[in-house]
Structure prediction request, 212 residues.
Amino acid sequence: PAGQPAVALSVDLRALKPEGKIRVFSPGRVIFSAGDQGDGCYVVVSGRVRISAVVGPNESRLLATIGPGDFFGEMAVVDDAPRSATAEAEVCTKALFVPRRKLLRLLERRPRLALNLIREFSARMRNLNQKYVAEIVEAERLSAIGRFATTIVHDFKAPLAIIGLATDLACSRGSRLAQRRQLRTMVSKQTARMKTMLQELIDFTRPGNQRP
Prediction:
């Protein structure tokens, strides 16, 4: 959590200390990027690290904030795959870096440590997956709202043109009472049409939205 002082590593994670090397990252420094090779994992000794991922077209979302005593970058090591997210130091951060080869060798020697870490990996992955899915849904939702708003702006041009023409005709010197009543009805219909489109946008942006 933000503002929490540095804490000692857990008993299991202390086994990683002889295998790793301390690295220091300045605020805003990218520790690794999505797509990078999974060359090792990190344990935060002090500071905070932001984990983010791209969930839309060139749109990055924060998935988690890692604090002292926690680790990150482990999944790319375990499954021998490229990084799936980007890690960035939020503040001045000190982290223990454990190379992939040494981590895997340690897990082979210490089955209990391997089991505990796998359990932790699984719990963390469930939480991150839920967060990732939620961010994707929100990004798509905002994108849909943007497309919907653009459509409404375009569709507003027709009723506004009709309202403008009707009011000009109603205010002209030669307009008759029956004609003004007819024009008033036209204006009312177009105004109601615009209110309906705006209400659809409002309903769509609420939780449990309706499809417009």
Remarks:
- Helices lie at 74-78, 100-109, 111-170, 177-205.
